[in-house]
From TrEMBL:
It comes from the Bacteria. Residues 321-500 form the ATPase dynein-related AAA domain. The lineage of its organism: Bacteria, Pseudomonadati, Pseudomonadota, Gammaproteobacteria, Vibrionales. Pfam families: AAA_5. InterPro entries: ATPase_dyneun-rel_AAA, Methyl-DNA_Rec/Restrict_Enz, P-loop_NTPase. It comes from Enterovibrio gelatinilyticus. This is AAA family ATPase.
Amino acid sequence: MRYQVLISTYPVNQFYTGWDHLTREHFQKAMIAISEVLGGFDIWSKTDGKSLRCGFKSVSKKTGKHLFHISLKADTFQLGLNYSKCIEGDEFLKSGEWEKDQSRNQFRTYFNWAGKDHGKELSELITVLSLGQNKELFKSNLPDIDISTIPTDYENYNSLVSKLGGVKSFIHDYLNCSEETKRAFCEIIFQSRTESLDCFATNPVKGFDIRLGRKELDSIRGGRVFAKFYPGSNGIRYEIRFVDGVTLSNSKDSGRPKGDIDAKAILEFNKYYSDEFKGKFTVERAPYWPSDYNDNSSISSDELEQSSKDCSMPTLSLNQILFGPPGTGKTYNTIEKAVLAAEPSFEWNGNRELLKSKYNELVVENRIRFVTFHQSYGYEEFVEGLSVNVEDGQPNYFVKDGKFKKIVQQATESFESEEQTKNYVLLIDEINRGNISKIFGELITLIEESKRKGKGEFIELDLPYSGEKFSVPTNLILIGTMNTADRSLAVMDTALRRRFDFTEMMPDSSVLKPKSTDSAFEIDLVKLLDTMNARIEYLLDREHTLGHAFFMPVVELVDKNEPEEAFTELKKVFQNKVLPLLQEYFFDDWQKIRLVLGDNQKKGENAVFVTSQSVDTKALFGAEDINQFGDSESKFTLSEQEESVWNNIEAYKGIYEVVS
């Protein structure tokens, strides 16, 4: 568990993911081997963000007594020894070199290995650490901690997680923090209990945004906030809001004390605890935990153990794309996904009208917005750009906000409010038609889940026109749709593939089966679609198959026991949907279209949609052989919409009966 925490915590996590498999194995082996010799040791990061100090360190002190160190590189790591703390074993140090201590102007303070032969270098370090005299020195390096000052619950960091029940996203980030951060955070939280401060959580969509202050059990929002905690690059950050008897504003220059959770933060909190807060916002009861606000939110020991093993909580994907051939229900499913993303607790129980009503309601509230990408769509329309109007004959230029910026601003306002956070959804139709670099620009990085506001690696940029600070919060969900049969497109931008989760939506013929077996409708729609798609997939590919959604209006009429109306609708589907798509798919190659429709096997001209007549090339061009490329010497004709074949049930049944 401790190793998993180490590799997922700053600064190790920014290097570890780039190492090859062998280097990762060496790193794990080194940590385990050294732990076996020392019986455990503290690890803290140096301020340069590129190295670790390992040894013994008290949370209450800024510096520790480090025995060895680890330098982190892009492709490897290097071990180093603090020889002033390990005075035996000089003769075993062979594979590296001594580093001069500039402050003391002397050598023989640090010995550094090159990181080339991990096995040999680790062996030398283990040998020195194992020597008897060095081990005796280690005992004197143990920090002098007054156990009586540590609350009972503080002895087990994970016990705090059960107190913060229901905030599942907190568990994920908390368990990935360094041991130092956990210790400091626990000390601050338990100390706040002696100050009678409630501990409560805001909407878990924000990540773990946990607050100290006043909040009653039946209150939707907190009464007063003393301080809050949120994810940061080093684990957990804090922000104190109540200073010198005043609640500071949210403006950039308000001067709210803030920073990373560490030993210094403990002193900072002790500095700002005051009787003024308790005097203004009195309470005559024991302070509450987050688990007190929801009886069902407490976490069992089994759940906690599983969380420790696997710090991954199932969450809603913030960026997702539905892709598939035409007519597979992408738009249909987008409505459901958008509503449930905006309102996760909404229940519609299969009532499509209720779902659409909720969708329209959210659109009116601007919590769901819709945009379609195309080749000429750009950053200025999507994010922001300069626009002009004329006043008194003079042009007046101003920055005009795009749909993306507008919905991000709304989502951010909700994200930063004291009230329950609301989710916002941006639907992007035909997302692969647009030039992603041109539309998103530098903001493509901001939509990554780990870079969102509310996450540990969140990024904020300056917009080019307005100069405003801009970041994307975690309560904004992006849902795109993509038609895989669009042959006008080049290979999809890799920026999308890397940042979006893809959900494939292929034709599902099972939905075309009538509810009643007593229907008078004679055509088997399931066999009809499956047969045509099997032929298309063989002649072309699966991305150009026909979607089941084209035939859904027919099924609805069949289920209403209206066979004549259903057949009329089927005729329209073939004339207005199926045949035009086949023409596009096969570039008007009518020979292949005939194969898809089974016209080449049908008996009787009245059952054939595309007729074929031989062409007398000699009569047209003389005796010379003009068929140099083996082209078909036939003329193909699509039946006119008024012709009887469209009203012939056998013409449709013949598509699949010839292979039955």
